[in-house]
Design a protein that fits this description.
The chain is α+β, with helices and mostly antiparallel strands. It is built from one helix and two strands. It has a two-stranded antiparallel ribbon with strand order 1-2.
């Protein structure tokens, strides 16, 4: 769907809770949440700490 417009996207399949997608922009070391949806800011930072 997104083609080469977006360098990375994660598709976890069907969205059963009907919340919108979380959209994140990464610019250098800065993480900007453009839209908080199924995953909250706290969820994302918890995940990123594990990387």
């Amino acid at each position: 769907y997104f083609g080469e417009k977006i360098p990375i996207y994660i598709d976890e399949g069907e969205n059963l809770n009907k919340k919108p997608s979380t959209i994140v922009k990464i610019k250098g070391s800065q993480i900007i949440i453009l839209r908080e949806g199924n995953y909250t800011k706290q969820d994302l930072f918890s995940f990123l700490k594990k990387l």
